[in-house]
Specification:
InterPro entries: AraC_lig (IPR032783), AraC_XylS_family_regulators (IPR050204), Homeodomain-like_sf (IPR009057), HTH_AraC (IPR018060), HTH_AraC-typ_CS (IPR018062). Keywords: DNA-binding, Transcription, Transcription regulation. The protein has about 300 residues and is an alpha+beta fold. It has 13 helices and eight strands. The chain folds into two domains: about 180 residues, Jelly Rolls, CATH 2.60.120; about 100 residues, Arc Repressor Mutant, subunit A. Strands 1, 2, 3, 4, 5, 6, 7 and 8 form an eight-stranded antiparallel sheet that branches. Helix 4 packs antiparallel against helix 5, helix 8 crosses helix 9 and helix 11 packs across helix 12.
């Protein structure tokens, strides 16, 4: 099993293209995304990303990509001195500009994590991941995904909406893969964990079969280490104990199944390896602060939405 893919699937990341726009005169737009991860790709010209959360504005040029992993309100502007205009005004200024070269063309989107309980990898992501055009290899998969997205947005045909949504999914995976491969910080536990072959063996079986009870002795045997060395390494690289990590993975997966609404509480408890719904509900509430039933009902009633 690909552990990163499983982590992202359990997070239940939903994606939406917010805007693909060209600006023909100095302009600025506000992006309220305090509950979601946002990204911007500059396909033409130059722009500035500014926010009170940032120490200083970030300069972006053609081919640059930035992912805001924490979700915070921000603005994009063609010039630092330009004030934000309304969306209606943007629509007015971007129409009927055939034959003119835009100052800036950009594509922006949002990734919303539906699962409230997320993998600790997300806690280690920096507030912004900026990929400059010169840092993206010309023939890399990430560059290919960006090119396909740009072509689909400008020359879209039948099925364009579905293709675009899948490209956003692919793009997010490539951004994270690029960050994991490029980061060289020993304080980033999961970057180190992904590089440890012994630990990865144990993590793989946890993610593949979270419904099984995995005593530390068995996980240590799978990893090829002694119990003492394995326990120490697991805690050092993940910041967690094997037992609590297994529980967390179980509940993450259980929350996703509950949101899908196709199984009752008893069935979900069985799927996740719990002896009965009572034990499952107790653990679920301890980690997520509400019972599985309340969680399922709240999601069905639209409490957890992508708005805001």
């Amino acid at each position: 099993m690909d552990i990163l893919s499983d982590i992202l699937q359990s997070a239940d990341i939903q994606k939406t293209l917010l805007i693909q726009r060209s600006f023909y005169e100095p302009w600025a737009m506000a992006f309220p995304c305090d509950r979601s991860m946002g990204f911007h790709v500059i396909t033409q010209g130059e722009a500035w990303l500014r926010s009170p959360r940032l120490k200083q504005p970030i300069a972006l040029k053609k081919g640059d990509l930035i992912l805001l992993t924490r979700g915070f309100n921000h603005e994009l502007a063609t010039d630092l001195d330009v004030a934000v205009k309304s969306t209606a005004q943007v629509d007015d200024i971007t129409l009927n500009q055939e034959g003119l070269k835009p100052l800036v063309t950009l594509a922006s989107g949002v990734y919303f994590i539906a699962n409230q309980l997320t993998h600790p990898l997300f806690d280690e992501l920096p507030e912004t991941i900026l990929l400059k055009s010169e840092e993206i290899a010309a023939h890399s998969p990430l560059q290919a995904a960006l090119l396909l997205l740009s072509l689909e947005l400008t020359q879209g045909d039948l099925g364009s909406e579905a293709i675009t949504r899948n490209l956003l999914d692919i793009l997010f995976h490539y951004i994270l893969r690029n960050w994991i491969h490029s980061i060289n910080d020993k304080n980033c536990r999961w970057n180190m964990a992904f590089r440890d072959s012994h630990l990865m063996r144990a993590l793989k079986v946890i993610h593949e079969t979270p419904h099984k009870n995995w005593p530390v002795e068995q996980l240590a045997s799978v990893s090829g280490l002694s119990r003492a060395v394995f326990s120490q390494k697991f805690k050092q690289l993940t910041g967690d104990t094997p037992a609590h990590y297994l529980t967390s993975i179980r509940i993450q997966k259980a929350a996703k199944v509950l949101r899908q609404g196709r199984h009752n509480i008893e069935q979900v408890a069985e799927l996740m390896g719990y002896p009965d719904a009572f034990v499952f509900s107790k653990v679920f509430k301890r980690l997520l602060g509400q019972s599985p039933r309340d969680y399922k009902n709240s999601y069905r009633e639209g409490v957890y939405s992508m708005d805001g």
